[in-house]
Amino acid sequence: MKTRLRLTWSLLGLCLLFLTPVSLFAQKFTASPDKMPIQQCIDLAKSGDTVIVNEGTYYEQIDFKGKAITVASRYILDGDESHISKTIIDGSNISDNTYASVVYFRSGEDISSVLCGLTIRN
User: Fold this and answer.
1) Which of 8, 36, 59, 114 is geometrically suited to a Cys-Cys bond with 93, CB 3.0 to 4.6 A?
2) Which long-range contacts (C-beta less than 8 Å, at least 24 apart) are formed by 30-34?
3) What pTM did the predictor assign?
4) Dihedral Cα 35, 39, 41, 46, nearest 10 deg
5) What secondary structure does DSSP assign to 52-63, as a single string?
6) What is the pLDDT of residue 82?
7) Which of 60, 50, 37, 39 is nearest to 120 (CA)?
8) Element (H, E) at 84
9) Residue 104, SS3?
10) How far apart are CA 87 and CA 66, in angstroms?
């Protein structure tokens, strides 16, 4: 019985190891209005990573650049919906007039590229 139990736990551990390789190496980057722009965090991120956007107003355009990443307010961490209205990407100072979008999904992104819990305006 002990051998069978050990084998079961070993197989469970092995399965978990193979089922979660991405999460073992995923990183979190944190954007702050006064220190680190969202786009800079996106540029540093690799597929599977998360960009946490602290509360504040960000005057920038962001481009996911085909990455399967999550860009989210702190709402994703604690479910507090008040973060959504306090975490703003404002397009009033658009730098790329060729495209008047504030957020770009234009490089083959799919459902694994996620924007969550932010307010987009202007």
Assistant:
1) 59
2) 30/54, 31/58, 32/56, 33/57, 33/58
3) 0.77
4) -170
5) EE-SEEE-S-EE
6) 98
7) 60
8) helix 82-86
9) strand
10) 23
pLDDT in tens, 22-63: 456 789 999 999 999 999 999 999 999 999 999 999 999 999
* Pairwise CA distance, residues 89 & 102, whole Å: 7
Segment 59-93, tens digit of pLDDT:
999 999 999 999 999 999 999 999 999 999 999 88
Q: Which two tokens stand for residue 5?
A: 């139990």
C-alpha 1/C-alpha 53 separation (Å) is 51
From residue 115, alpha-carbon distances to 1, 13, 15, 67 in Å are 49, 32, 30, 12
Query: Could you give the 3-state DSSP secondary structure of residue 34?
Result: coil
